[in-house]
Amino acid sequence: MSGLEPDKPIEASCDPMQASPPLPASGFNTRAIDLGRIECLQILDEHGDIEEGLQPDIEDNELLRVHRAMLLSRAFDSRMLAMQRQGQMGTFAPNLGQEACMIGQVWPLGDEDWFSPSYRAFGAQIWRGWSMERLMTLWAGYHDGFPPPDDVKDLPFSIVIGSHVLPATGIAMAMRRAKDPHCMVVNFGDGAFSQGAITEAMNFAAVDQAPIVFVCENNGWAISTPLDKQAGNEVLAARGAGYGVHSIRVDGNDILAMMTAMKEACDRARRGEGPTLIEAITFRMSLHTTADDPTVYRDESLVEPWHNRCPIRRFELWLTRTNRLTTQDCDRIREECEQEVLDARAYFRKNATAKPREIFDHIYDTITPELESQRMDYLRRLDRKGVE
Amino acid sequence: MPKCTMVEALNLALDEALGNDQQVCLMGQDIGVNGGVFRVTKDLQTKYGADRVMDTPLAECGIIGTAVGMAIYGMKPIAEIQFSGFTMQAFDQIEQNMARYRNRTQGRFNIDMVMRAPYGGGIRAVEHHSESREAYWVHTPGLKVVIPSGPRNARALLAASIADPGPVIFYEPKAIYRAFREDVPDSPETMELGKANIAQSGDDITIISYGAMMRPAREAVEDLTELHSINAELIDLLTISPIDTETLLQSVTKTGRCIIVHEGHQTCGVGAEIAARLAEGGAFEYLVAPLKRLTAPDIPHPYFQVEQHFLPDPDDIIGAARELMEWT
């Protein structure tokens, strides 16, 4: 599991430029290419200490806004899990312990920038302006929840793993052509990175110099498959380097590192300097989804060390130590977030409406004659069954 | 305008679209400097620049997936897949995203794009270069499928496909890319999608076809009239999805006999769907003979030394028509 140790940079076996042995007499050099050292950015360690000289220049109110968003994400996460267990919610993918990844990757985005989430990124969606009641509507199986809100420039997430990354890249390619100084952030996991479509996307972005930031949230697990069965080279960022994409690794549980790396990558994209791959190293502490039981395939001892690496815990250690917040403040914000989620749930319960008569309405701009005839049959069936 | 081949007519339609709308862009493999392996995009990169007539990396899934994104951002991409056999690489993006984003987002993202690809056999090509798998896309909710049969309707249908607000699969019958020329009007021309064309009127039997198979079908219809005194009605589908069921029903209720001719495989092919619609839709009581399909068998397109007798030819159509005429 060495690839999951965020604070250990991967050491190359040797310097590729200097340590090459002399060419054999045949003239062929058969030594493999060595990408050298790929470092992992960490600013705030798990004790809540900042590495000397690395503190980013971020205003306090931004830090507090991000802190609150992380708490809100966690409150939403645990409420959704509870609702699913109570039979009030469909299958849901929790995000426990990945809050820094999620909020950090969307923090630098403005209203004109785009975000393309994967399905575990609800905290980022809330940050971007998706209401929690809309997300509840989505996960509870109503069509209304899936489209992004009108004023939010996001893609809906794709259920097919990694399938959204190419459209996200196309959006960035269109931005460059329109000379719009915006960027796209697209999020996917370590499992998704095995999909060919994502390497195609990185290659297209590199060739086109598209303004996109690929965020691979490497949480170590794709349902039951650990990283060492997913990837021959556990340094996933190396793949981006191979495609000519500016690639870095970041401690994904360190919110300051995520914010810093993402800001730099988004700025680079907006300046027209092309795509970036950020491999954010984190850990899926909870279930793949509510339909999953990790005790079948994962030893609890693997989860244990990540409690101390919790992104919220370490951020709060630092925020309180530097007098930006008190522990009482943290408790109060937690309670406020919990109340916000409960308010959203009340709104969701009151307003979510199934609309079985509308399921044909958005297949085509104008319904085709054949489909219209199928729709009429279906409506007659609903009439017979007495369904509104 | 002098008489055009289909390749030239398609080039004209693309040129007109690029000239009329800044949001239209072309993307595909070798479509720029090279003008496409069949030269359909010849000279367009010189005229409109490499950002609007884009040579892409060699990845079909990537072409369609990024085109979908460009459409979401407001562009109108026309993506070329070099041979329709290679659209299988893009199946993921066509099925998951191109066809579905509109429904997934309740109409917020309309995927205003066209996927063009040459399809069909008869050009003595290697494996995967002769497929006719349009039925996949007919089977996929959210798509329209269009297949022209000559230079003039190719230009008009491509213009209509580009103008259509949703995603359109435009399959080009490469066997007749340069097989014959037709007058193409100087001014832009379009056609309504979803409408079949009665290529020749007749009372005895209905022959339904599309694309490159319209050539042997026309030949058969002429011979049936001249040699066998059988007046066949020939219908050119033009739009394969949505199928113009109404025109087909009107014809078959009149003739009582029907042959469906296509290059795609038989099982669950376009002919199967047409036969079902005729049987369900009111033609049943007018039929005096069983419905007949002349299609490719359900095997991969054979290698070119043995492809000559694989697809339906005029003799097959004439034979089938004469057989059906024996039913009274």
What topology does this entry show?
The complex is a heterodimer of chains A (388) and B (328).
Chain A: E1 40-41, H1 60-85, H2 99-106, E2 114-116, H3 122-128, H4 132-139, H5 165-177, E3 184-189, H6 196-208, E4 212-218, E5 221-222, E6 225-226, H7 227-230, H8 237-242, E7 246-251, H9 255-270, E8 276-281, H10 300-308, H11 311-321, H12 327-351, H13 369-385
Helix pairs in contact in A: 1-2, 1-3, 1-12, 2-3, 2-9, 4-12, 5-6
Chain B: H1 6-20, E1 24-28, H2 44-48, E2 53-55, H3 60-72, E3 76-80, H4 91-98, H5 101-104, E4 114-119, H6 134-138, E5 144-146, H7 151-163, E6 168-173, E7 197-200, E8 205-209, H8 214-228, E9 232-236, E10 239-241, H9 245-255, E11 258-265, H10 270-280, E12 292-296, H11 314-325
Helix pairs in contact in B: 1-7, 3-4, 8-11
Describe this protein's structure.
The complex is a heterodimer of chains A (388) and B (328). Chain A is 42% helix and 9% strand. Chain A is globular, with a radius of gyration of 23 Å. With 388 residues, chain A is α/β, with parallel strands linked by helices. In chain A, a hairpin with a 2-residue loop joins strand 5 and strand 6. The longest helix of chain A is centred in the first third of the chain and has 26 residues. Chain A folds into two domains: 313 residues, Rossmann fold; 29 residues, no CATH class. In chain A, the strands form two sheets. Chain A has a six-stranded parallel beta sheet, with helices on both faces. Chain A has a two-stranded antiparallel ribbon with strand order 5-6. With 328 residues, chain B is α/β, with parallel strands linked by helices. Chain B folds into two domains: 171 residues, Thiamin diphosphate (ThDP)-binding fold, Pyr/PP domains (Rossmann fold), CATH 3.40.50; 129 residues, Rossmann fold (3-Layer(aba) Sandwich). In chain B, 34% of the residues lie in helices and 18% in strands. In chain B, the strands form two sheets. Chain B has a seven-stranded mixed beta sheet with strand order 2-1-3-4-6-5-10, with helices on both faces. A five-stranded mixed beta sheet of chain B has the order 7-9-8-11-12, with helices on both faces. In chain B, helix 3 packs parallel to helix 4. Chain B is globular. The mean pLDDT of chain B is 97.
